TrEMBL record:
<comment type="function">
    <text>Catalyzes two sequential steps in the biosynthesis of coenzyme A. In the first step cysteine is conjugated to 4'-phosphopantothenate to form 4-phosphopantothenoylcysteine. In the second step the latter compound is decarboxylated to form 4'-phosphopantotheine.</text>
</comment>
<keyword id="KW-0456">Lyase</keyword>
<dbReference type="GO" id="GO:0004632">
    <property type="term" value="F:phosphopantothenate--cysteine ligase activity"/>
</dbReference>
<dbReference type="GO" id="GO:0046872">
    <property type="term" value="F:metal ion binding"/>
</dbReference>
<feature type="binding site">
    <location>
        <begin position="132"/>
        <end position="135"/>
    </location>
    <ligand>
        <name>CTP</name>
    </ligand>
</feature>
<protein>
    <recommendedName>
        <fullName>Coenzyme A biosynthesis bifunctional protein CoaBC</fullName>
        <ecNumber>4.1.1.36</ecNumber>
        <ecNumber>6.3.2.5</ecNumber>
    </recommendedName>
</protein>
<feature type="binding site">
    <location>
        <position position="114"/>
    </location>
    <ligand>
        <name>CTP</name>
    </ligand>
</feature>
<keyword id="KW-0511">Multifunctional enzyme</keyword>
<keyword id="KW-0210">Decarboxylase</keyword>
<feature type="domain" description="DNA/pantothenate metabolism flavoprotein C-terminal">
    <location>
        <begin position="10"/>
        <end position="225"/>
    </location>
</feature>
<feature type="binding site">
    <location>
        <position position="173"/>
    </location>
    <ligand>
        <name>CTP</name>
    </ligand>
</feature>
<comment type="similarity">
    <text>In the N-terminal section; belongs to the HFCD (homo-oligomeric flavin containing Cys decarboxylase) superfamily.</text>
</comment>
<comment type="function">
    <text>Catalyzes two steps in the biosynthesis of coenzyme A. In the first step cysteine is conjugated to 4'-phosphopantothenate to form 4-phosphopantothenoylcysteine, in the latter compound is decarboxylated to form 4'-phosphopantotheine.</text>
</comment>
<feature type="region of interest" description="Phosphopantothenate--cysteine ligase">
    <location>
        <begin position="15"/>
        <end position="233"/>
    </location>
</feature>
<keyword id="KW-0285">Flavoprotein</keyword>
<dbReference type="GO" id="GO:0010181">
    <property type="term" value="F:FMN binding"/>
</dbReference>
<dbReference type="GO" id="GO:0015941">
    <property type="term" value="P:pantothenate catabolic process"/>
</dbReference>
Length: 233
């Protein structure tokens, strides 16, 4: 074997990756969205396929990105569509990685016509409603030994550091692994490099050095592969 050959440790494994950012329509021409580019999820899908996995990539508004070779891409737009696509694919998967940025809220109603402004300088209020927590749903209904990975983009605040928030989120979400990106000040969104931590439910913690999104993807699959080899932990 070539010394630089990628491991084929995901051969025979089926994985689902979500990527991109959901868009929640307000009227026929407007939506609430976020800054996720989808590049990290695409790197995860590409690397998994290169390592032998059968990959389903659920891409939320990622039509600008080329489909990774050998990967089945399911295009979606809203959080509810993403939830349905992930729910369809997840039961057969050995691992599910939720790299997509899912809107927590959507406009409570979708206006049938374009919302127009009026002459009195007033502005409308947009009532929002909660979207389903897809990751929490996955964890609650997962088949035995399925590995579930979440992503968190965090900024520190007066209540705690990036890592404090991430550990709390890992416990709350109940997934096996949580990838934490420090965001703000031009970090992570839309860039080709990512940095952060990988936290495991068992309390392990790895610092992810600044590097490409492919590197981060490889680190995630290394950890997932490790957990797959020790089922029932
Ligand atoms: N996620 C999800 N469904 C949602 C929101 C988030 O599946 N409705 C997933 C994301 O794909 C990600 C993980 O949950 O893998 C963490 O997302 P994040 O927004 O950091 O978590 P939240 O629980 O929404 O917490 P916060 O209030 O900080 O946004
Ligand atoms: Ca959120």
């Amino acid at each position: 074997a070539r010394p630089d050959a990628l491991p084929r440790d995901l051969e025979g494994r089926r994985v689902v990756v979500s990527a991109g950012g959901t868009r929640e329509p307000l009227d026929p021409v407007r939506y609430l969205g976020n800054r996720s580019s989808g590049k990290q999820g695409y790197a995860l899908a590409r690397v998994a396929a290169q390592r032998g996995a059968t990959v389903t990539l659920v891409g939320a508004n990622t039509s600008e990105l080329p489909d990774p070779a050998g990967v089945e891409v399911v295009p979606v737009s809203t959080a509810e569509q993403l939830a349905a696509a992930v729910r369809d694919a997840a039961p057969a998967a050995d691992a599910v990685v939720m790299a997509a940025a899912v809107a927590d809220f959507r406009p409570a109603t979708l206006a049938e016509h374009k919302i127009k402004k009026t002459d009195d300088m007033s502005a409308p209020t947009v009532p929002l409603t909660r979207n389903p927590d897809i990751l929490a749903g996955l964890v609650a209904s997962r088949p035995k030994d399925q590995i579930v990975v979440g992503f968190a983009a965090e900024t520190g605040d007066e209540r705690g550091s990036v890592l404090d928030h991430a550990r709390t989120k890992l416990k709350r979400k109940g997934c096996d692994l949580l990838v934490v990106n420090a965001v703000g000040e031009g970090k992570a969104f839309g860039t080709d490099d990512n940095t952060g931590w990988l936290l495991s439910q068992q309390g392990l913690q790895w610092r992810i050095p600044l590097g490409s999104k492919s590197r981060l993807a490889a680190t995630v699959w290394d950890a997932v592969g490790e957990l797959m080899r020790q089922p029932g932990q």
